[in-house]
Amino acid sequence: MSDSSPEQQTGRDGEQASAAPSRDDQDRSPAIPELVIISGMSGAGRSTAAKCLEDLGWFVVDNIPPELIPPMVDLGARSQGNVARIAVVVDVRGRRFFDNLKESLAALDAAQVKRRIVFLESSDEALVRRFESVRRPHPLQGDGRIVDGIAAERDLLRELRGDADLVIDTSSLNVHELRAKMDAQFAGEEVPELRATVMSFGFKYGLPVDADLVVDCRFIPNPHWVPELRPYTGLNEEVSNYVFSQPGAKEFLDGYAELLRIVAEGYRREGKRYVTIAVGCTGGKHRSVAMSEKLARRLVSEGVETVVVHRDMGRE
Question: How far apart are CA 18 and CA 296, in angstroms?
């Protein structure tokens, strides 16, 4: 019997034979962390979104040069599971470093990193108002006006917005509503499979830019023209009862809920996990609010985690 160890035994040809890797060694291959890239317009809520993920246990880095993202993911992979989810904020504050983002995304794809891009959007009017309220210049305005900086930033981010997995319009969202949206998308990745935001809105204030599906409730008679109901919203029981006593309202709810069930099954098959459903009426106060509340309850009963946002309620 040879006194040599398995690593020192030679093969039949006299060459040194290397020991085959054990199953334990194979199982120790580094696990690549999940990655979320947060970007979007300055003043649209990137810091709030990042803070929300941090509160959910993500490792968050703000204003990182894009070329450092792949090395950071590599470090996370070598952390023995201690850093399983990484979120980075990438924006125009990086100036010339921002130009390297496309190359970094290509490197991440080549390394088969599971990545998602969250893009925070907002209207020009809302962004100008926010910058003026904090008395700070836009990072790209230079010697021009705030609107000049916003226009330059939109142009710079146009391609990234098109590649985003999730676009959130924060024009009419407060901090708590934005956090609720982020929670709906990222809290408890295991269950449920699909998460939805049901948003009521008023057509006279414009379509939500981040909506995946838009439906119109203006075929239902408007409670605005009922004097005793006009002061209230669709959250009021009397208003809701009035809406659903109208011809076609219940049938519409049943039919659209069934349609969403079919769509949800398709989204799951395609790997889509987030959907924003916009329900509109004229002013976003009565019909769309009542319909959104009922629709959200139907989705919850189907096992879909759902957040309700009333974008224009109280705006009149």
Answer: 61
pLDDT over threshold 70, residue 73: yes
Confidence of residue 271 (pLDDT cuts 50, 70, 90): low
Summarize pLDDT for 280-294 with one digit per residue, the tens.
Answer: 999 999 999 999 999
Res 191: pLDDT:
42
In a 10 Å sphere around its CB, with 0-12 CB exposed, 13-18 middle and 19+ buried, how is residue 132 labelled? exposed
Neighbouring C-alpha atoms within 13 Å toward the C-beta of 93: 15
pLDDT at 11: 42
If you compute the radius of gyration of the chain from its CA atoms, what whole number of angstroms results? 25
- Distance separating alpha carbons of residues 112 and 108, to the nearest angstrom: 6
